[in-house]
Specification:
The chain folds into 2 domains: about 110 residues, NAD(P)-binding Rossmann-like Domain (Rossmann fold), CATH 3.40.50.720; about 180 residues, NAD(P)-binding Rossmann-like Domain (Rossmann fold, 3-Layer(aba) Sandwich). The chain is α/β, with parallel strands linked by helices. Strands 8-7-6-9-10-11-12 form a 7-stranded parallel β-sheet, sandwiched between helices. Strands 2-1-3-4-5 form a 5-stranded parallel β-sheet, with helices on both faces. It has 12 helices and 12 strands. About 40% of the residues are buried. The longest helix has 18 residues.
Length: about 300
């Protein structure tokens, strides 16, 4: 019998699919690192989301039995992929499942910042009616710069084009086919994208190369009054530099779903009136979580040859 250890909260539909195929599924949420190391031995599959850190120590503790790690979600920054490779443990994730959910939140943050929706909501609920205070900016006709034209970046670009925005993109990979289909324009450098865009949205994985790729220099290249949106990973943006630029009014605002430290201990950035924040909820829709769970289960079944 294949044994699956589930360490984070995952939609039951995928787990029930595995149980229906004869897999033993044990749900043990919130295990501290030392407990996870003691527990993982004897399991064939480790199924996690972003909260559980699958370190080298965890993987070595599962050596001999652990064959597959599946991260339900987009990134793999909480999994030591190199250690898994060295130990002969396969790693999978489910980036396909949450594309629309993250893209819609990205657009939502753009609108919320451009029109000061959260602050306007708070004003009305407090009994105010400061109509003159909330002069916003129209997104139609503006230029959106997409950093990373992968699945989510493509979906954001499609929606933005439908809203009447001009869309530029920068990617280290050749995305010419996707660009033609969507109708967005490639730029040869990140610097050019930053200087030409009214709104910039980041959709890259967190790697050694992308860590703090949007720093003080990059922020200084952005148009005065530009908006920055980040729904990828918090560490892609230098939060201290962003705080300074927003405080000084050199940027109009930011929409942030992700932070370098989650939850953030310092609230200076999140408390700025021109920052709209959400607690890493890009993938948090009923539909996305159900699909991610089912996709993870199918990948496990396929790995063990049980897709009949």
């Amino acid at each position: 019998m294949v044994r699956v250890l589930v360490c984070d909260r995952i939609d039951e539909e995928g787990l029930n699919l595995l149980r229906g195929k004869g897999f033993q599924v044990d749900v043990k949420l919130g295990l501290p690192p030392e407990e996870l190391e003691k527990t993982v031995g004897g399991y064939d599959v480790l199924l996690v989301r972003g909260k559980t850190k699958v370190t080298r120590r965890v993987l070595e503790a599962g050596k001999g039995s652990l064959k597959l790690v599946v991260r339900v979600g987009v990134g793999l920054d909480n999994v030591d992929v190199e250690a898994a490779r060295q130990l002969g443990i396969q790693v999978e994730n489910t980036p396909e499942a949450t594309v629309s959910s993250v893209a819609e939140l990205t657009i939502g943050l753009m609108l919320a910042v451009a029109r000061s929706i959260p602050e306007a909501d708070r004003t009305v609920k407090a009994g105010g009616w400061s109509k003159e205070k909330f002069m916003g900016s129209l997104l139609k006709g503006k230029t959106l710069g997409v950093i990373g034209l992968g699945r989510i970046g493509c979906e954001v670009a499609r929606i933005a084009r439908a809203m009447g925005m001009r869309v530029l993109f920068y990617d280290v990979l050749d995305r010419s086919r996707e660009a033609r289909e969507i109708g967005c324009e490639p730029l040869e450098s990140l610097e050019k994208l930053l200087s030409e865009s009214d709104v910039i949205t980041v959709h890259v994985p967190l790697t050694a190369e992308t860590r703090r790729m949007i720093g003080r220099r990059e922020l200084s290249l952005m148009k005065p009054g530009a908006i920055l949106i980040n729904t990828s990973r918090g560490a892609v943006v230098d939060e201290q530099a962003l705080l300074e630029f927003l405080r000084e009014g050199r940027l109009a605002g930011a929409g942030l779903d992700v932070f370098e430290e989650e939850p953030p201990r310092s609230l200076e950035l999140v408390k700025l009136p021109n920052v709209v924040c959400t607690p890493h909820i890009g993938a948090q829709t009923v539909e996305a979580q159900r699909e991610a769970s089912l996709l993870a289960a199918r990948k496990i079944l396929r790995f063990f040859g049980r897709m009949d």
